[in-house]
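Homework-ish question, so no full write-ups if that breaks the rules, but can someone show me the predicted structure for this set?
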Amino acid sequence: MMTASPGSLADRTLRLLRHPVLRRLAQAFFVAFLLMVFAFLLIRLIPGDPAMILLGDEATEEDVIAYRKLLGIDGSIPSQFGRYVSNLARGDFGVSIRSREPVLSIVQKRLPISLWLTVTTIFMTVLLALPLGVAAALYRRTWFGHAFQIGASVLVATPVFFSGLVLILLFAVQINLVPIAGYHAGFPANLYYLWLPALTINFVLVPVLARILQSSIVETSSEEFVEAAIIRGTQGWRFYWRYLLRPSLAPTVAALGYFAATVVSYAVIIEIIFNLPGIGMTLVDAVRNRDYPLVQGIVFLSGLLVVGLTFMADLVNGWLDPRAKIR
Amino acid sequence: MTPGTAAVSPVGRLRQVDLRRRWRQLNAESRWGLVILALILMLSVFVPLLSPNDAYEFVDLPLQPPSAALPFGSDHLGRDLLVRVFAAARLDIALAILGVSVPIVLGTFIGTLAGTTRTPIAETVWDGLVNALTAFPEIILVLGIVAMVGADVRGLLIAIWISRWAQYARIARAKSLALRDAEFVQAAQVLGYSQLHILIRHIMPNVFSEALAYALSDFIFIIVIIGGLSFLGLGVNPPTPEWGAMLAEGRLYLRTEPWLILFPGFFLSLTASGVALLARGLERISKGEDD
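A: Not a homework solution, just the prediction itself:
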C-alpha cells in the first residue's frame, strides 16, 4: 500500500501513526488509563473513613494509620494516585485485607477457572448461534422465524440465576447428568463441571448472537454483490460462505468481543450458583468482607481484559469484512 | 363499558378510537408485551390488597405445597408465597423504574451537553471516558460500587445510577450532534435564548424519544441486576419480599420444594420478558419491519 512512498522519515512515521490498527491501539491505551483512574476513584466512594469502617470505633491510632497505608489512602490525593500508578506499573495491585495475600496472586490462582468457563461458553455460543441464526434468516417468514423472534425475547429476559436453578433442577436433581456444584481442575475433566454453567449463560447469549447474525444475513442478502453472484451462477457452499455468511459475520464477531464482557459479568452469578471457585466468587466474597483492595483490583483487571478483547475483535472484524476496513 | 363514563362524551370516544388505532398499529410482539405487563401490574396491585394474608405474617406450617388455600404454597417460614411474590413485584418494578429514571435524565443531559460543545479535544476525552466506563463488565462494576457504598438498597441504586448513565449519554450525544445545526435550533439562537434554555427546551425533548427506546431494554437489565444482587445477598435483604432474595432463600430447598424458586423466578422472568417483547416490537415498528 505505502511501501514505495517517498518522503522523510517523519512523514512516514506520521503516516504509520494514522494506520487504523495503531490508532485503535492508542485508543485502547487511553481507555486503559481511564480505567485506572476509575478504579482509583472507586475507593473514594466509601462514605467516611475506610480504615475506621474496617477497624471499628475502638481502633488505636497506629492501627488506623497502618490500615490507611495498606489501602493506599494516606497523603494527598495526587500523591496517592502517583503511588497507585507506579505500583500498578510494577505489577503491584495491593494486598487483600482479609488474607494479606497480594491481589495479583489471588487473581492468578482463581483466573483459570473463570477463563475456562468463558472459553467453554463462547465456544458453545458460536456452535449454537451459527446454525440458529442462519436458519432464522433463511426461514424468516415461516413459523420458525416467528417462534425464534418471540423465544429470543423471552430467553434474553430470563435472568441467569433463575434459568441456572431450573437447569440444576432438571439435570442434576431429576436426571443425574451433572454434579450439582463444584469443580475439578484439568482439561477435559473440568468440562464435566463446566458444561451446564456454560449452557446457562448461553440461554442469554445465543438468542442475542443469533439475532444479530440473522439480521446481518438478511441485510447482506439484499446487497448488489449477492445478486451479481447469483447471476454469475455461483452456487452451493461457495455461495453461502463467500457471499452470504462471511460478509455477514463481521457484526457477529464484533458482538462476540463485546460478549466476553457479558460472560465475565454473568459468570459472577453463575459461579455462585454452581459453586465454581473462580474470579466471580472471589469478587462476591471480597464485597461481603469489605476487602476494598481486592475489589478494586478485580474491577480494574476485568475492565482491562474487556478492552483487550474488544481490540482483538476489532482486528478480526477488519479482516472478515472488507467493508469495515474502508471506514 | 359502564354508562356515564368518558366513552359517552365525544372527546372520550375520540380518545378511545385513537387508542384502538394505536393498538392496531402494533405488531404481535408489542401486543403480547403490553398484555403481559398489564397482567403483572394488575396482579401486583390486587393480590396483596385482596389477600387476607400479609407478606410478613406466618400463616401455615413451613414448606406446604401449593393448595386451594395457599395457591403458591408456603415458604420456609410458613408465609404465604402468593402474597410475597406479588409484594415483591411491587418492590422490584418500583426499584427498576427508580433505577432507570435517574440515568436517563442525567445521561441525556450530559450527552446533549457534550454533543453541543464544539471543541475537538473534548471529543477525544469524551470518547475515552464513555468507552472506559462502558468497558467494565456491567455486573462487576455494579458489584464494585456496591462494595464501596454499602450492600443495601441504597448502595444498589447508587451503583446502578453511576454505572448506567453513559449509554444514554452516548445516544444523546450522537443525536444532538445531528440536531445542533437544525433550523429550529438556529431559530432559537437567533431569537436570543440562552444556551442552557436551548439545550433543555429544544434539543433534549428531541433526544428523549431515542433514550426512552433504550430505557426499555435497560429496564430489563436493571430489574435482573436488582434481583441478581439481592440473590447474592448484596441488595434487598430478607425478610423484605424481593424476587432475587426469595430465589436465594428457596435455593436451599431446590431438591424437595422446587416451587419456592419456580414461582418468584417465573414472575421475574415474565415481567422482564414482557418488557423485552414490548421493546423488540417497538424497535421493529420503528425500523419499518413487518411481522
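Now go work out the reasoning yourself. Hint: Confidence is low (pLDDT under 50) at residues 1-5 of chain A.
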